[in-house]
Amino acid sequence: MERARGFLAGMRVRKKLIFLHTVFSLTLAIILTLATSTPLRSVVRELERDKALAVLDLLTAEAQRAGPGALGDRAAVAALAQRLSATTAPTAQVRLVGEAWAVGGSADAARVRAQGGLVGQVIQRQLSPGVVAEAWAHMPEVRASVGRLLVFMGLALLGVYGLIALALEALVLPRHVYAPIREMLRADEAARSGDHAAETIPERMIPGDELGAIMRSRNRTLRQLRQHEEDLARALGLLETAANDLRKKNHVIETAQRNLADADRLASLGVMSAGLAHEMNTPLAVAKGLSERLAARGSLPAEEAALLHRVIGRLEKLGESLLDFARVRPPSAAPTELRPLVEEAWTLVRLDRQAQRVRMENRVPEGLEAMCDGGRMLQVLVNVLRNAVDATAERAGRAPGAPGAPGGPGAPGGLGAPGDSGARSGGAGAGAGVGVGADVVEVEASRSAHGPQGQGGAAQGWVSVVVRDNGPGIDPAVLGRLFEPFTSTKLDSRGTGLGLAVSQGIVRQHGGLLLARNRAGARGAEMEIMLPAAGANML
């Protein structure tokens, strides 16, 4: 930005005012000195001229009293002039000159001449033919008085200058110039630092001059700017809310589209799963009976018999999962309090020894109810909580299915077939999550006015239940198909890949949604169960 140019442009206001005041005062002093010294000197010259004339008049009168024809006697006039000069010296002298420089015969003529280092008025007068008298007058007292008068005038001007400068510096400028400038600088500093309460100048500090007009204009501009900022912030907030709603609705639409695309395939898969489970149950029952007989007879070593028993139990659990997936039972929905339901689900999950190493933080508010089938929603919560426990085991390096881990040897079973923790095997995630250094599962719930659109397009009241863990997170390659049947990377150890598919089917039958995502800005994943709030119409 180009700065203003000029001698005064780089000065501060105080220096600028002092400089201008000094220049003005000096100029005024010079003008007054010139204006008064010339007339005063003219008066002095007139006085000296009058005195020289008076001396000549006195010489003429003395010569005339001496007798007729005395003015023509050069010697007599010279003697009179000498005696007269002795009485008038040193301020005036008279003498005869040999040649007159005056023009006009007997008329008096005057000029200035220095004599003995002093300047005075010289008057010549022709007393008679051949006799010219010259009188010189110098008045030092008058000239000294004029000099003292000029010096006094200069000192008086300096005094006036000092008084004016003192009055300006002590009374006028601090209140009417410096204080408003300091107030504007203070307000500007407050505006730069974000102190909105102090960025405007109080009305009592604003003068009624041009500076005051600038300050009022600044206040108006600043208030308009803040108003525009508030309007912009409100608009951005509305835009962000609309964007969030749009993202959620888009997610709901995409989920619904995927559900429609998978409906036929899931129906066929359900029929196949039911048939497969039915066909498995008979041979499994026979195999289980034979294994028990062999174990009772001691025909098999104890370790091999226990291994055979676990394998058959695993196949039975797989059959139960297939039947759960194939069943389509309409939920018996009723207002159900969620906090006790979460506690009951955690009690079942803690039957696994590995879950006993995990701390569950139940942050569901007391009295929060959802419209759901409590028994079937308990199955969903058990599946989701077991999934979170398996994820924390992966974070700690304890693979699910290992001794002491969920589903490992000696670990009792529970409701459903979680088995989907294998979907979390990838993506370590960045950043520290909640409970770094400890296995933590968090459960939160809250009411929300935003959710899937109900029939007729009217938004219902919803309850959102979020289960968070601090595990490695969900592999992005698996996240998109997490709820598809048999999505698992641990089929050989624990997971069947049906737990989340069964859970999603149950939640969908309630008219809700089951969502999965990695935590933003933290390690781990979170599952969100969206259900109609108590009192809302079910889909």
Enter the CATH topology name of the largest domain. Heat Shock Protein 90
The tally of structural domains comes to 3
Q: Given the structure, what is the number of helices?
A: 9
Which structural class do the helices and strands define? alpha+beta
Spatial strand order of the main sheet: 6-8-9-11-10
Overall spatial form: rod-shaped
- H/E order of the elements? HHEEEEHHHEHEEHEEHHEE
User: What's the CATH class label of the largest domain?
Assistant: Alpha Beta
- CATH homology group of the largest domain: Histidine kinase-like ATPase, C-terminal domain
In oligomeric terms, what are we looking at?
single chain
Work out the number of β strands. Answer: 11
* Fraction of helical residues: 40-55%
Low-confidence stretches: 103-107, 401-436, 453-459, 489-493
Strand content: 5-15%
End-to-end distance: 65 Å
**Rg to the nearest angstrom?**
59 Å
Describe the biggest sheet?
5 strands, mixed
Mean pLDDT comes to 76
Topology, element by element:
Layout: H1 13-66, H2 74-88, E1 92-97, E2 109-115, E3 118-128, E4 131-137, H3 140-193, H4 210-297, H5 302-326, E5 334-337, H6 338-349, E6 359-363, E7 369-372, H7 374-395, E8 440-448, E9 462-469, H8 476-479, H9 499-509, E10 513-518, E11 525-532
Parallel strand pairs: 6-8
Antiparallel strand pairs: 1-4, 2-3, 3-4, 5-7, 8-9, 9-11, 10-11
Helix pairs in contact: 1-2, 1-3, 4-5, 6-7, 7-9
What does this entry look like structurally?
Helix 4 (210-297) packs across helix 5, helix 6 (338-349) crosses helix 7 and helix 7 (374-395) packs antiparallel against helix 9. This protein has a 5-stranded mixed beta sheet. Strands 1-4-3-2 form a 4-stranded antiparallel beta sheet. 29% of the residues are buried. It has helices spanning 13-66, 74-88, 140-193, 210-297, 302-326, 338-349, 374-395, 476-479, 499-509, and strands at 92-97, 109-115, 118-128, 131-137, 334-337, 359-363, 369-372, 440-448, 462-469, 513-518, 525-532. The chain folds into 3 domains: 13-161, Beta-Lactamase, CATH 3.30.450; 233-328, no CATH class; 331-539, Histidine kinase-like ATPase, C-terminal domain (Heat Shock Protein 90, 2-Layer Sandwich), CATH 3.30.565.10. By secondary structure, it is an alpha+beta fold.
